[in-house]
Write a structure and sequence with these properties.
This protein has 232 residues and is an alpha/beta fold. The protein has one domain. Helices cover 61% and strands 7% of the residues.
């Protein structure tokens, strides 16, 4: 699973904003005469710095890290039930899906964990026993197959969770980058910039407006405090 958000300059060549006559290119009428080329200024924005200091990004990053930690803990908790039948294992998933579990459900979980541990101990006993009776061989094969099936089920659960987590990360990146691009576009129009580039692709030239963009993205300290103040 990915562990950290970062802003990505989606546009080719690191171009964040192009202001042409102050009208976004996609909003212009294709049949209309092109506006005269603007002769304004070029600016640069250090996306790496914005990523570190954009408060909404840092908050979302913390939320995603917490989600990742909780899902890892959930998967680890399931290993205590890795030697159960499919029916019993699915019962475990159902119980863990209800929060909080009742005392009765919690007791049932303990019972199923104990059954899984018994099956594991029996499998280990049979692994080293030689020779085995026909009944013991049948039981050994059953327990080994059961263990393989649960391992595959756990791997599928992990893959599904990883895919869903990556989708959360991608969606957050898109939303936050759109916010950055909107802030850059607004600032560029207000201050006469016709081209804004990601600073990582610029060797020389351009006015650095990174601090101004960060100031637009982050709310004043008073507003941030009000937004995060817990309800009484």
């Amino acid at each position: 699973m990915k562990s950290q958000l970062r802003l990505i300059a989606w546009a080719a060549a690191g171009i964040l904003v192009v202001v042409t006559g102050w009208v976004p290119a996609r909003a212009q009428d294709e049949s209309a005469e092109p506006p005269p080329r603007a002769t304004g200024k070029t600016a640069i924005v250090d996306i790496a710095v914005v990523s570190r200091e954009y408060q909404a990004l840092q908050q979302k990053d913390a939320e995603l890290k917490d989600l990742k930690a909780r899902r890892i803990a959930y998967l680890e908790s399931l290993t205590a039930f890795a030697f159960l039948s499919e029916t019993n294992f699915n019962e475990v998933l159902e119980i863990l899906g209800t929060s909080p579990a009742s005392e009765e459900k919690s007791a049932r979980l303990a019972e199923l964990a104990d059954l899984s541990e018994q099956n594991l101990r029996r499998l280990r006993e049979l692994e080293v026993k030689d020779p085995r009776t026909a009944q013991e061989t049948e039981q050994f094969n059953m327990l080994r197959e059961l263990s393989r099936d649960r391992r595959e089920q756990l791997q599928q659960l992990e893959a599904d969770m990883a895919r869903e987590y990556d989708e959360h990360v991608a969606m957050a990146q898109r939303e936050l980058m759109q916010n950055v691009e909107a802030a850059v576009g607004e600032y560029a129009q207000q201050n006469g910039y016709t081209l804004v580039l990601d600073g990582s692709v610029v060797i020389y030239g351009g006015e650095d407006i990174t601090r101004a963009i960060i100031a637009k993205l982050n709310p004043p300290a008073e507003e941030a405090g009000e937004a995060t103040e817990p309800e009484q």
